[in-house]
Amino acid sequence: MSKETSYIGKVLDTVIKRNHAESEFHQAVKEVLETLEPVIKKHPEFENAGILERIVEPERQIIFRVPWQDDKGKVQVNRAFRIQFNSALGPYKGGLRFHPSVYSGIVKFLGFEQIFKNSLTGLMMGGGKGGADFDPKGKSDSEVMRFCQSFMTELYRHIGADTDVPAGDIGVGGREVGYMFGQWKRITKLFSGVLTGKGLDFAGSLVRTEATGYGCVYFCEEMLKARNTSFGGKTVVISGSGNVAIYAHQKATELGAKVVAMSDSGGFIYDDRGVDLDTVKRLKEVERKRIKEYVTEHKSAKYTEGCLGIWGVKCDVALPSATQNELDKNAAETLVKNGCIAVAEGANMPSTPSAVNVFLKNKVSFGPGKAANAGGVATSGLEMAQNSQRLAWTFEKVDRKLHQIMVDIHSSAMAASEEYGVPGNLVAGSNIAGFIKVAKAMMAQGVV
Ligand code: NDP
């Protein structure tokens, strides 16, 4: 084992020991550190400065109780987290996830990825993430409001427009951000840009709702351009039917593709005429129903129970946009066998490490989440800029900036992959380009 490998190996061992039974976090750290070997070789000063040891250890971890009353008057208790991972580049920035599976390992993996993603956007944002094991599904609006108010009654102490600016993620959309913002304002008396993803009626930014999905498609468009092709005439499969999936569908369709399958945690729909986005938007955004309801309105479409089957649908482009580890090695092999040429991750870490290897080995263009889904946080950064200036930019202006940011991320990841001897490998390129900026800022700021 080379000296560089042993340094990385030692750091990984410590992460595993210190963060017992947090497999998603181990997976995310391993994936990043393994690609940094050539960087450590070129910058031996990083080892002396303990950059890797520091970057894998959150600056601060907050865990708190969230008590709230359900509609029957019964008290419920959830556990919540805010992990402030790294502030070398700016205030902590990253979403809040409300889902029953949330625990420290998930929040840490997301917070860790966020450091590099935010760095890639070129905006000055540190990395953080949070959430709670609360399930908004099946809850009334009043229950969700009471939960959000109780959650913010503790969280407000730890966040601020220049300290830590949370946003949405799974289970946290405009409704939840609105309730949390209201409670923040009530407690602090401040009307400031402390959360992003706010409604357009109260200092939100145009395009923020669409940003992650649009950004993922813009990024994928660059991947396709590098293969001398485009979305025109392509068949696309998108997992999930939430915020990211819906707007990825919209942009891919605008660019001439046909989206034939979408899913939720229950199963997936297949519609060979193209999935009708208006139906999905109404079912999911307005009525909060299950995706299987789609087939009651579209008789020729088919619903299949279970999530994994979606990867068996023949497509040219796949955009996994639901959740972590939703696309495994078998699914990747099936996609390759069916002629898929590009995979861009709308979700965070949706492909398992062995699935990623299958894509890379088979020359499928692969855009990892920390680059391909960075459009959401980038537009959050643009929302923060508008809030600071007390301005509201037009849809076209924000969309133009988002598009340029995604093009720039693709080219800086490509450039890093070439400079460090892995040309075209966007996994390594994104990790390296994101890491170097943070590492240099950490070096400049001393041992903190
Ligand atoms: P939403 O809550 O809007 O939608 C999530 C979708 O994924 C739903 O269709 C949901 O189905 C499905 N899903 C969630 N958990 C699971 C699971 N365990 N198994 C199968 N399906 C699941 O979330 P978003 O669209 O905002 O987020 C999707 C992904 O994109 C996440 O990985 C998130 O971290 C990532 N992301 C989001 C950003 C944003 O701006 N929103 C920014 C960058 C990344 P069901 O309704 O049945 O639960």
What is the alpha-carbon Rg in Å? Answer: 21 Å
Report the biggest beta sheet as strand number plus sense, adding barrel if it closes.
7 strands, mixed
Instruction: Give the total of domains.
Output: 3
User: Average pLDDT value?
Assistant: 97
Bound molecules: NADPH dihydro-nicotinamide-adenine-dinucleotide phosphate
Task: Determine the structural class based on helices, strands and strand pairing.
Answer: alpha/beta
Which oligomerization state do the chains in this entry correspond to?
Answer: single chain
End-to-end gap: 30 Å
Low-confidence stretches: none
* Total beta strands: 12
Instruction: Give the helix tally.
Output: 18
Percent of residues in helical segments?
A: 40-55%
- Provide the CATH architecture of the largest domain: 3-Layer(aba) Sandwich
User: How do the helices and strands follow one another from N- to C-terminus?
Assistant: HHHHHEEEHEHEHHEHEEHHEEHEHEHHHH
What shape does the CA trace take? globular
Description:
It is built from 18 helices and 12 strands. The chain has 3 domains: 3-55; 60-191, Leucine Dehydrogenase, chain A, domain 1 (Rossmann fold, 3-Layer(aba) Sandwich); 211-372, Rossmann fold (3-Layer(aba) Sandwich), CATH 3.40.50.720. A 7-stranded mixed β-sheet has the order 9-8-7-6-10-11-12, with helices on both faces. Strands 1-2-4-3-5 form a 5-stranded mixed β-sheet. By secondary structure, it is of the alpha/beta class. Helix 9 (208-225) crosses helix 17 (395-419) and helix 13 packs parallel to helix 14 (353-361). The protein is globular and about 65 Å long. Helix 10 links the parallel strand 6 (235-239) and strand 7 (258-263). The two termini are 30 Å apart. The structure holds NADPH dihydro-nicotinamide-adenine-dinucleotide phosphate. NADPH dihydro-nicotinamide-adenine-dinucleotide phosphate (NDP) binds next to helix 10. NADPH dihydro-nicotinamide-adenine-dinucleotide phosphate (NDP) is lined by residues 168-171, 173, 212, 240-245, 264-266, 307, 321-323, 326, 346-348, 373, 376.
